[in-house]
Amino acid sequence: MNSYQLDHLQLLESESIHVVREVAAEFERPALLFSGGKDSICLLRLAEKAFRPADLPLPLLNVDTGHHFPELNEFRDRRARQLGARLIVRKVEDAMERFFSFRDSFGQWDTKYQRPEIWNRYNARVNAG
């Protein structure tokens, strides 16, 4: 009998796809941060692998710093269109967020209420309100 082994990159990809699926399953209105840069392109590709052939179940969120090259914004817009994904563009605010960033009923985020994310434990519970 053959044994199936994942190499290091395959293991990381599998774990990342798991996190993306967990977010989509556990949260009411998740979004995928997408700037059009290399890190978010990788994240978008993982989301494609997690949900294809179905459509992405979460919109793409771009936090516009005002420092992008026009070509980057064109790429961002074109990629969203190619995927048939909803693209939300908002202006930058100072924030230091993690995997899950819980907001209050006004959509504001407070660092003192940020839950710790250690040892691959993601606290996905949503408090009432």
**What is the helix content?**
25-40%
Which regions contain 5 or more consecutive residues with pLDDT less than 50? Answer: none
Strand content: 5-15%
Rounded Rg = 16 Å
Describe this structure in words.
With 129 residues, the chain is an alpha/beta fold. It has a domain at 30-113. It contains three helices and three strands, in the order αβαβαβ. It has a three-stranded parallel beta sheet with strand order 1-2-3, covered by helices on one side. The protein is globular and about 55 Å long.
Q: Which properties best describe this structure?
A:
129 residues, alpha/beta, three-stranded parallel beta sheet
Layout of helices and strands, plus pairs?
Blueprint: H1 8-26, E1 32-33, H2 38-51, E2 60-64, H3 70-83, E3 87-91
Parallel strand pairs: 1-2, 2-3
Helix pairs in contact: 1-2
Question: How do you describe this structure in short?
Answer:
The protein is α/β, with parallel strands linked by helices and 129 residues long.
